[in-house]
Amino acid sequence: MSGRRRLDWLGLTPEPERELPVAVAALRASGDRTAETPVPGTRTPGTRTPGTRTTEELAAAERRRVERLVLRGSRHSWLRYLAEITDLVTSVAAGTRTGDPAAALLAGEVVLDHHRMLIGLPGPGYGRTAADRTALESAVRALRTRAPSPHPTHTPTRTGGSR
Q: Does residue 132 contact residue 86 with C-beta atoms inside 8 Å?
């Protein structure tokens, strides 16, 4: 390979950049002690406990992280980020972490679609994500039975076909 950076991983699909930040922020907030978790009758609307972050702030931080990965990251750092999301999703599906099943389902479907499409790229990405694909397939099945309905903006893509 020449000295140029391989960027083919960036062209897979726009769904992770568009759909993951809000869903991942919701999942991270469920286990984040600094996230704002309103308790009825304990706060006046519009006020926050010092040190808390709103859902919007968490989503904005997640968007910035994704943007940094896309603009300055590598295939390896991107797959490491998706592995973190896989851990969040599978933990919610297994019940070892609290979290919104609908957000976990959306994140799981997006990452699973991404990992399935890696088969079309050169390099070891598809093989490296085999265990995550297996875990996500199981988690998505479990979450579909718990989530009220699939996220309306995500339409799973098909491997090997056009979108």
A: yes
Among 91, 129, 126, 85, smallest CA distance to 108 is for: 85
Distance CA 21, CA 18 (A): 7
Q: Residue 32's pLDDT is what?
A: 57
Beta-ladder partners of 35: 53
Closest alpha carbon to 37 in 24, 23, 51: 51
Q: How far apart are CA 53 and CA 99, in angstroms?
A: 17
Q: Is 70 exposed, middle or buried (0-12, 13-18, 19+ CB in 10 A)?
A: middle
- Tokens linked to 28: 């991270």
Report whether pLDDT(101) > 70. Answer: yes
Count of other CB atoms within 10 angstroms of residue 35:
17
Q: Is the pLDDT of residue 43 over 50?
A: no
Q: How far apart are CA 31 and CA 34, in angstroms?
A: 9
Tokens linked to 163: 């979108």
Report the alpha-carbon distance of residue 113 to residue 15 in Å, rounded: 9
